[in-house]
Amino acid sequence: MLNKIYKEISQTLKDDFEARLIIEERTSYELSDIIINPDAIISDAQYSNILSDVEQRIAGKPLSRIYGQREFWGLEFQISEDTLDPRPDTELIIELALKHFPKDKPLRILDLGTGSGCILISLLSEFGESIGYGVDLSFGAVKMAQLNAAKNNVNNRASFICGSWVDAISGKFDLIVSNPPYISNQIIPTLSKEVRNHDPILSLDGGVDGLEPYKIIFPKLKNLLHDGGIALFEIGYDQEKDIMRLAEESRFMQRCVHLDLAGNPRVVDISSGDK
Ligand SMILES: C[S@@+](CC[C@H](N)C(=O)[O-])C[C@H]1O[C@@H](n2cnc3c(N)ncnc32)[C@H](O)[C@@H]1O
Questions:
Q1: CATH assignment of 80-271, among 3.40.50.2300, 3.40.190.10, 1.20.120.450, 3.40.50.150
Q2: Is there a contact between 70 and 86 (Cβ–Cβ < 8 Å)?
Q3: Is the pLDDT of residue 200 over 50?
């Protein structure tokens, strides 16, 4: 029975991985049970939950939205209608920070547009001596980030602020990170229904050209970075030239543009050295 239902889901969704996730979420079985124990019983209640998940999935709701959680950097994050569903490409920011700073360095970290808190919380889980501040305009996102910080045991080193970008921020930071909304608002209606209908518009809309947040943040960044500090910003795959220009206009040195696994520009790495 278990194997039959797994195959049913997998064929309907044309996705073995998601079929496995649904089985794991709705029953106590794991992937190995599907092979070792193919006739294991699935109760009527479990089957009815599975069918409901499959229906919602066909209608375009991502599994992470159905279950309200997402894994990022090996940690569990709760998500809601107020938060972006964290994307694996964003993990590049954590990798780059780990290449730049030793783990035991006590950093002051600022995360602009924190959403679920996934970037800041992952950084604090790696940099055990560091403290961090996460800012978001959405009160719902800030509440979710606070909850996720507690869930991942970094709440004693994380503070969250509801406000616009750096308006309420003072002091200096060693590391400033951000995955701001960077989709042009003309493009948003053409996005997949998974994104368009389920990620909050505030987390996507980067204004007419998708560059609005960078234009607001970059000129204010210099005063917030310690000497030797760096800023890591996620960007859209086609924004490299524009972002370089904006960084130069704010007298930032661009250290590098880093590519994601698909080979697209994904994160700019800028420092406050004078040009
Ligand atoms: C692309 S999402 C990134 C969320 C999270 N950091 C992540 O990577 O999954 C951008 C975030 O910026 C927030 N945001 C939008 N406008 C903002 C503003 N003016 N000030 C602060 N945060 C803002 C959104 O609410 C959203 O949570």
A1: 3.40.50.150
A2: yes
A3: yes
